[in-house]
Structures are given as structure tokens and as C-alpha cells.
Amino acid sequence: MAITDINEFAHLTDADTDALGRELDEIRRDVEESRGARDARYIRRVIRLQRSLELGGRAVLFGSRRRPAWVAGTAMLSLAKIIENMELGHNVMHGQWDWMNDPEIHSTTWEWDQTGPSEHWKRAHNYAHHTYTNIVGMDDDVGFGILRMTRDEKWRPINLLQPVANVILAATFEWGIALHDLDTQKELEGVEPMQWNTEPHKQFAVKVVRQVGKDFVLFPALTGRAWKHTLAANATANLVRNVWAYAVIFCGHFPDGAEKFTSEQYESETRARWYLRQMLGSANIDAGPVMGFMTGNLSYQIEHHLFPDLPSNRYPEIAVRVRALCDKYDLPYTSGPLSRQYLLALRTIHKLALPDRFLKRTSDDAPETSSEHKFLAAGSRIAEALRVDAVTGRRRGLLSALREHAEARIDARRFGRGM
């Protein structure tokens, strides 16, 4: 099962967790107090870049009957859509730039360039996901209601289709998010399943007509005889954006090390434990400046989950301090190359398509789902480890426990005892 007691799993006392929370609060205060001109310049430059790419791409597509122009225009439009979706839409609607009091760059006014209405997404994502991150049964983003991503969810025969559903989800990610957010909005407003003439449905329909009309009617028509090529370019750019956004999101939420939690954990959760849940329930992508920018700085998913409303351009510097805290409290800092993180998530998708009886590891000790009970199998040497090493004075926390647990499993296999 998922984690029911996060302190026990993390090998931290209540005092440890409270101290960690205070240090994270200090990071927040430091960034909030230092926001200023350089941050404002950053976001305005990003907006100029994105608009230049989109305008340039659409201008080039007037000549899209020629292959080089089609390729160039499609590439520019794809980049523009990725930047608008990841670094602008997602982050602006988190309120990361509300402190500027610029009505153009504000969470209450920004409407992003994809199918779902911004208002639906903000309620489903900003509230539901970031409040209940990776809590099974409370965070609908755990598999998006389509994929089984933890053994805490009962296997159903339809899960056999997960590999196919995953490909469809990747290609149509904006539609998957839009429909997911619509369902959340309907639930929040108490709309009955078969009730169609409702405000959420009207908002959804208006946005779909506007978005589809722009991408597949208006802009192709403006290019005259090249309309078929422009239509294909717009469809391709949307596909590229969808697959990229899907990959980044899955790499940040579903590789090994991104833990899941139970509602019991949430019931007794303090602010400090909320911080700890974000750290243990997220994963980063190893990225330089270019990769970080193209992911909307969601390559720093741990930092984003800790501070979703702080400017995204600050995440690299925040990450240095968060890594230092993980080292201090002996906590894992889950990160890896994009290819590795995605392959781990993909393995979980395919593995959990099968019934549990075909899986070797237990629900307490699987790569994609574990709990504090996993350490009991390794004996009291790990489960009852001292918080501080008596010889070195170094804290012995979750990271040390995970290493010892892995060593114990290897020893058990070596001597034929199985764990």
C-alpha cells in the first residue's frame, strides 16, 4: 500500500520534520523578498520570444506548399506552442507572476492556447493536484483516471489496454487534460453525470470552438491555396506540444522514487509534512538551461511542487538549497535524465496493466509503490535505525535506509531467502 505515515517512512521525527519545514519556509521568504526587475525582465522576454516564434512561423506557413517552408514554419510554431504551454500558461496561471500586478501576465486573466478553459484547469490543478499531490483517491492526476499507476488501485480488465491508452493520451494530451478538468469542475459544482446544459459544459464548448476554429479553420484559411499544408502544420505543432508536455509531466510524477500516499497520511498532515510529501512525491529531470526552459522549468518538479507560485526562473537556484536540505536530512533527491525517467514511468504503465498475481514485488516494496512497511522486511537493523550515527554524528534517514534495504534484498536473494 502507499505511505500512511510519512515521518516513519522518511525516518524523521516530528521535530526533524518541523525543522525541515522551517528551513523551506525560509527559502520561500528569501525568494519572495528578492523578486524584482530581473524576474520581470525574464517573463517579458519569454513572452516576446514566444510571440515572435508564433508570428514568424505563421508567416512562413504562407509558403508552406514548399517543403522547406513547411518544415521551418511547423518547427517555429511547435516551439511557440511548447513555450506558451509550459513556461507561460502553466506558470502564469499558478500565480507565479501575480506579484507584478500586470493585468496581462496575471493568473486571473491568462487564457492559454489549448482546448481546456483556464478556469477549469486552475481549479483542478492548482487546488486539487497541488493540495493532494499523489494521495491515492484524492489526487485525480495519479493516472488521470485512465492509467493504473499504483498497486493501491484495484486492477480491472480494462487496464490491459493501458499501453494503447497511454499512446492515445500522449498524442491527445491537451484533450485528456481538458476532459479531466471538466470532470473535476462538474464534481466541484455538483453536476450530475448525464446533465449537459450546465455552465461547465458551456465554458468547455466555447473554448473548444474557439481553439479548434483558430487552429483548423481561421489560420489555414488565411494562407489561401496553402490551407491544406497549414492545416497539417497546425496539427503537427499541436501533436508535438502534446507529446512533449505529456513526457515532462510523466517524468515528474511517475518514475521510481515518486512516492504515493494514503488519505490517512493527509488527515494528520501539518504544513511541514505537506512539504515533505511534495519532496518525496516528485521527481526531477536532469537539465541544463535550455532543457529547463523548454520544460517550463518543470524539470525542477520537486521545487515546483514545494513552491508552485514562485517564479519558475528561480527554480534552479532554489534547487541548490533543496538538494542541500536533502543531504542534511538524509533524504533522497529523485532526479535523472529525461530518457531514464520516462522509461521508468513507461515500465510502470506496462507492468501495472497486468493483474497483481503476475507481479513479483509486494505492494509495500515495489519500485512504483512503497510504504513504511517495506523496511520491516529488512529486519530491525533498518526499521529501528538510530536517527543519528553514534560514531560519525551524521543523520541516518531515508536515503541510508533505502540503501540498506536494497543491500538486504540482494543478500536475501544471494542466500535464497527471497524478500
Write a structural description.
The protein is mainly alpha-helical. Helices cover 58% and strands 1% of the residues. Strands 1-2 form a two-stranded parallel ribbon. Helix 2 (14-34) packs antiparallel against helix 14 and helix 5 (118-131) crosses helix 7. The protein starts with 5 loop residues before the first helix and ends in a 5-residue tail after the last helix.
Helix content: 55-70%
Number of strands: 2
Structural class: mainly alpha
Average pLDDT score: 92
Give the termini distance in whole angstroms. Answer: 16 Å
Quick one: biggest sheet? 2 strands, parallel
Largest sheet, order of strands side by side?
Answer: 1-2
Residue fraction in strands: under 5%
Contiguous uncertain segments of 5+ residues: 379-386
SSE topology:
Layout: H1 6-10, H2 14-34, H3 37-60, H4 67-92, H5 118-131, H6 162-171, H7 173-188, H8 199-222, H9 227-253, H10 263-267, H11 271-280, E1 284-285, H12 289-294, H13 301-306, H14 315-328, E2 335-336, H15 338-351, H16 380-383, H17 398-414
Parallel strand pairs: 1-2
Helix pairs in contact: 2-11, 2-14, 3-4, 4-9, 5-7, 8-9, 9-15
What's the short version?
The chain has helices spanning 6-10, 14-34, 37-60, 67-92, 118-131, 162-171, 173-188, 199-222, 227-253, 263-267, 271-280, 289-294, 301-306, 315-328, 338-351, 380-383, 398-414, and strands at residues 284-285, 335-336.
